[in-house]
Amino acid sequence: MSVQSVDEARKQEIASKLQRLRERLIAHRLDGVKLNLIPNTAWITAGARTYVGEGTDVAASSILVTLERAYILTDGVEAPRLRQEEGLEELGFELIVEPWYASGKFAASFGAKYRMGEDVPGHHVNMGEELRHLRSVLHPNEVARLRRVCRTTAEIMGEVVRSLRPGMTEHQVAARLAAASRERGGTAVVNLVASDERVYQYRHPLPTNKTIERYVMAVLCFRYEGLIPAITRLVHFGPLSEDLRMKAHAVAQVDARLILGTQAGKTFGDMFNIAKRAYQDVGYPEAIAEHHQGGSLAYMPREVLASEGNPTVIEEHQAFAWNPSIRGVKSEDTILLTHTGPEVLTEVVAWPTWSVNVDGQSIERPAILEV
């Protein structure tokens, strides 16, 4: 695809999103909305990098969308890069450049004259939930982009995990995940590593200087062009114990039921109930209370979590990462709900799998790689 056609595709995507957002403004009788958070600025710009610090949810440059225009609110520090490298003016945005020491006047003036929404709680109408829904239902261009990003995510995970050896530290594993992400132009926004007993002890294992002996879990959420897929893989040096093999097969069955149960019209509360029943059926009823089960994703590693009684309805063209876990094992891939059903997007090439049957449907789920 040529640069010109990519730009045209982005313009079409942005135009569609602006139309959807303005429909919401009209419905709420608002004159504009100010987007402050990275997930929302990335969404409305079709993946532009409006941030500087990657350890915050707040963008360095915010965006004001009115019923007629779309403004990038920035300063003289950020404006050149936003023009030249992100191409935001060519994509139809107007840059409002204020001095770094006196920024915010344009938005404040608009908010004083007109009825305005924002994506954070404050003095204006909070449209956070509205925007979460808008960015979670993917435009066709976003679907194509998500497929590419998921292939890269799987490539990173496969490359790194297959390179691991006993004697390496968890920090070294995390460094390889981070480096492989950077080399491909993205960022490892979630980078978790556990080895041996830490796999059993912690569901969110920040890497340590512990040395790998026999068993490793690696978790990656990879941000590229705004979108953030998720993946987990496990590797064991030497043959698995029977107990670990049984647990891994059990969590694969829970994962299979969640994936095949992801259908338009169901709620996130329904998905919680699917997980709860699945854990009971495989003999680990306590696992439902020990960690969340995942949920939808798009411009956040999780947009909406499956939780008891959650009435949020699942829709086509949404992406999900269910992450069922039992102490010592976990199963996680990014999937897309299409008109024909759920599709796994982060399959790692030549990875060992189990074929799991659920009500006559069969699906392959990742096993533990034995080296």
Which terms summarize this structure?
371 residues, alpha+beta, Creatine Amidinohydrolase, Chain A, domain 1, six-stranded mixed sheet, globular
Describe the protein.
The protein is α+β, with helices and mostly antiparallel strands and 371 residues long. The protein has 2 domains: 3-136, 3-Layer(aba) Sandwich (Creatine Amidinohydrolase, Chain A, domain 1); 140-370, Creatinase/methionine aminopeptidase superfamily (Creatine Amidinohydrolase, Alpha-Beta Complex). It has helices at 3-27, 38-44, 79-84, 105-113, 128-136, 140-162, 170-183, 197-201, 242-260, 268-282; strands at 32-37, 58-66, 70-75, 94-98, 116-118, 125-126, 187-195, 215-223, 230-236, 294-297, 319-322, 325-326, 329-330, 335-338, 341-344, 353-358, 361-366, 369-370. A 6-stranded mixed β-sheet has the order 4-3-2-1-5-6. A 4-stranded mixed β-sheet has the order 7-8-9-18. A 4-stranded antiparallel β-sheet has the order 10-11-14-15. Strand 2 and strand 3 (70-75) form a beta hairpin. It is globular and about 70 Å long. The two termini are 39 Å apart. The model has no long low-confidence stretch (mean pLDDT 96).
Strand order of the largest sheet: 4-3-2-1-5-6
Instruction: State the helix count.
Output: 10
- The CATH class of the largest domain is Alpha Beta
* Helical percentage: 25-40%
Q: First CA to last CA: what distance?
A: 39 Å
SSE succession:
HEHEEHEHEEHHHEHEEHHEEEEEEEEE
What proportion strand? 15-25%
**CATH H level, superfamily name of the largest domain:** Creatinase/methionine aminopeptidase superfamily
Instruction: List the uncertain runs.
Output: none
- Taken together, the total number of domains comes to 2
Task: Describe the main β-sheet briefly.
Answer: 6 strands, mixed
- Average pLDDT for all residues: 96
From the 3D structure, determine the CATH topology of the largest domain: Creatine Amidinohydrolase
Query: In total, how many beta strands?
Result: 18
